[in-house]
Amino acid sequence: MSDQSRRKFIKHIGSTAALLGIGRLAAMGEVPTLLQPGQRVAANDKIRIACVGMGIMGFGDVQTAIKVPGVEFVGAADLYDGHLTRVKEVFGPQVYTTRDYRELLKRKDIDAIIVATPDHWHDTIAIEAMESGKAVYCEKPMVQQIAEGHRIIATQQRTKAVFQVGSQRVSSIALAEARKRYQAGEIGRLNVVEARMDRHSALGAWQYSIPPDASPATIDFDTFLKDTAKVPFDPVRFFRWRNYQAYGTGIPGDLFVHLISGLHFITGSSGPVSIYASGNLVQWKDGRDVPDTVVAIFDYPETKAHPSFQMTLRVNFADGSGGGEYTRLIGTEGVLQLGWNDFSIKKHKLPEAPGYGGWDTFNTFPQIQQDKFVQQYNAQYGASQRKGEESSQSFAAPKGYDDRLEHFANFFESMRTGKPVIEDATFGLRAAGPALVANESYFGKKLIQWDPEKMVIKKS
């Protein structure tokens, strides 16, 4: 890294540290990697990465990862030749490309693998990569099936490989600050969490573009299918795989998992104990076999980390208002509303005195009883006891802040120093598991009991 690049990097992390109040976060052991100005990367201290699956997430992940000093992109695998051509156009002709991801695992000069494939391939590639001695950054949801998650956990524990799930939100400095405020009791006792992530566009509903040259000659469709049902070549299934149960995890796996990850990070929760989901296919009747509207209710039990509460998640791809999103943690004294790298807290703390009049039985009393009531009320409650507390505050990350860059920096720091990753395989399954169960509840039309510690569906 040049002196100019290093100075720019240190200037960035220094300004971020000033914004946060670095001492307070350091005391909690939560300082994100980019907030450590003493760290340096030697010129020969390279981490060489490769990516399997060069679609939207693959390109985005690689472009972010190589912004971290000391990281070099050297290899890519994808089943569509056009993606591999684009890799060389964007990252240079020196990048090794192949259809067969196993060729990347054989290379000794590759230190880490990004898994950004369709969901049904996550477990196989992640496990083989760890067994090949590679660190793994696996896109969310970590797995398509619950059993696959347990195999990934077992492989990581056996190989001791560095493994991180790619729900980047948990590395955000905004979520770290939100967790601090929540744990300080600023919203009182948590009782309800509600979140929605609504859209109204073809691309938002996963109707992604299909290249004109898509054909059996340019796409290895049989390998894409893996162990799913054999079907004739279909570029729609290949490029819009999120729309099919065989390859993706639908709305819960793609979007609920973000919301669940953030909630678990803030509250320290291991997960819900019961899940029920309902929904419909309203607008995007394009051959997909997953709904475009899903609402799910998750019941969280009381634990040492948090009180019992209920969470409701909704995603609607047919939102005629144009879409929008929020996540609210609602407590007895306030509400914490999350953006992506920002949040606000609005407090409404009740006064000790209950008040009287208005929509109240007081007005139905005879006048003499009203007078006596007021006299007793004034004797019991002073002026300070009649005032509640209303306030609002907000927090936002610096302009241009990138939580995905932070997440990758944490991953690479773990590779270099042995520091635990922020989102390991167990955290990943505790976030993905409830989302996958929501799918099972939707298709089975039933309430499902979940064991958040053992991460299994309870037998009825």
3D structure, described in words:
The structure is a single chain. The protein has 460 residues and is of the alpha/beta class. It is 35% helix and 20% strand. It has 14 helices and 16 strands. The strands form two sheets. It has a ten-stranded mixed β-sheet. A six-stranded parallel β-sheet has the order 3-2-1-4-5-6, with helices on both faces. Strand 2, helix 4 and strand 3 form a beta-alpha-beta unit. Helix 7 runs antiparallel to helix 14 and helix 11 crosses helix 14. It starts with a helix and ends with a strand. The N terminus is likely disordered. It comes from Chitinophaga nivalis.
List segments where confidence is low: pLDDT < 50 over at least 5 consecutive residues.
Answer: 1-43
Strand content: 15-25%
Fourth-level CATH superfamily of the largest domain: Dihydrodipicolinate Reductase, domain 2
Number of DSSP strands? Answer: 16
SSE string, helix = H, strand = E?
A: HHEHEHEHEHEHEHEHHHEEEEEEHEHHEE
Shape: elongated
For this structure, the quaternary state is single chain
Rg is 25 Å
Helix proportion of residues, in percent? 25-40%
Note the total helix count. Answer: 14
The appropriate CATH architecture of the largest domain is 2-Layer Sandwich
